[in-house]
Amino acid sequence: MKTIIVNGIVVTMDSQGHIYDRGYVAFEDGKILETGPMEAGMITEDAHILDARGGIVMPGMVNLHSHLGMVSFRGLGDDCKDRLRVFLLPMEKKAMDAELTYLSTRYAVAEMLLGGVTTVVDMYYFEEEAARAMDEMGIRGIAGETIMEDPTCDSPDPKQALAYARTLMEHYKDHPRIRGCAAPHGTNTCSEETLKAAWTLDREFGAPFTLHTAEMDYEMTYFRDQYHMTPVQFLDSIGVLDSSTLAAHCIHMTDEDIQLFALKGAKAAHCIGANSKAAKGVSPVSAMLAKGIAVGLGTDGPASGNTLDIITQMKLCADFHKNETRDRSAFPAKSIVELATIKGAGALGMDGITGSIEAGKQADLVLLETESASMFPVYDPYSALVYSASPQNVDTVFVDGVCLVKNKKLVKADLAKLRSELAEKMNRTEFGKIKKF
Ligand SMILES: [Zn+2]
């Protein structure tokens, strides 16, 4: 049956930037049929009507970079200088397994859906389990199996990780919402041979080649000392920098790196919350956008950025870039909502199916209520979304036209049950032994 969302401020994010005050969006069988301003007498047919009550209807948001299996690490070693070596790697070794990845990913997807994220790129281990969790929860996602030179919790060497990724990609190649990819951990945590093998595998399946890039100080030093290059120049020199490349972070980009990205059509996942919390610096996103590079937003994992919604990232993006440029008019709210929606979808080559509210696209839709205290008045919906909104304003979410969040609650799952099952599993592992405050 057709569904029509009525009485909403419809922020389409189409190429003309249409916004319809008292607008509607009609969809059926997962696809958007039409959108526009409401007209008298238009709702006469047999349809399910959802009254937006003046709320903001926007395209589902895209989270371009995360590690969903890491919910159990959230808040662990947050202000510790060397958190990675002191907390993350040892705990990963001791406690991470397929079951924990599955339960964690399920919980993480719940959090994202409740915050209006409808598409996610994940990158972790046991990604068959992550893909299964994403599929069950109804989100649109890419499950990236992490490939590393060192032994990991699911693969003793990169060859086996690549074989795991191939099986995953085969399994999901015809799935309507879920795909797999081979995701090398980073520019300097994989050998040249491994990077090339992962890129070749991703090309075979038409999957994004996603990896951490130009993120760490020591990564920059390593490539300078070893090759007299930047990590981006290195990726280009071995032939794996192209329009399939989705580079996470891109903090330490030189002008030449930005030129190379523009020339090769490489994409960037901007993770401002995780980057600023870790005191790593601020990616030169304005310069990248000025060169026409596709940039979207990512949360990074819950151990890095803590929260997994994109609304929080939009606000941080505005705050940091305005402050950095000392320019109040820099990064206007509309340009940030673009990063969260249509540009994020574009960075995945998925802007033909999601990222805007247009006839023919999949019905990935979010309704934010404007009845909460901070959401009144709404002079400009872009401004309300970036500066006033929080994930708690997300009222209703559809993916492929399927209602997954209604009245701020999950429709197909119970958050308390997801949490208790994850907590019970954590208690059976090394996480259960951690002394809390
Ligand atoms: Zn990351």
Question: Main attributes?
Answer:
Urease, subunit C, domain 1, 437 residues, 15 helices, binds zinc ion, four-stranded parallel sheet, TIM Barrel, alpha/beta
| Low-confidence runs | none
Amino- and carboxy-terminal Cα gap: 52 Å
Apparent shape: globular
The figure for the number of domains is 2
- Alpha-beta content class: alpha/beta
Instruction: Return the CATH class of the largest domain.
Output: Alpha Beta
CATH architecture of the largest domain: Alpha-Beta Barrel
Describe the main β-sheet briefly.
9 strands, mixed
Helix segment tally: 15
- Helix % is 25-40%
Question: Over all CA atoms, what is the radius of gyration?
Answer: 21 Å
Please tell me about this protein's structure:
By secondary structure, this protein is α/β, with parallel strands linked by helices. The protein is 37% helix and 22% strand. The protein has helices at 83-95, 98-114, 127-137, 158-172, 192-205, 217-227, 231-237, 255-264, 272-277, 285-290, 310-325, 333-340, 342-347, 381-388, 415-427; strands at 3-11, 19-28, 31-37, 48-51, 56-59, 61-66, 117-124, 140-147, 178-184, 209-213, 245-249, 267-270, 295-297, 365-368, 394-399, 402-406, 409-410. Strands 1, 2, 3, 4, 5, 14, 15, 16 and 17 form a 9-stranded mixed beta sheet that branches. Helix 2 packs antiparallel against helix 15. The chain is globular. Bound molecules: zinc ion. Residues 65, 67, 212, 248, 300-301 line the site of zinc ion.
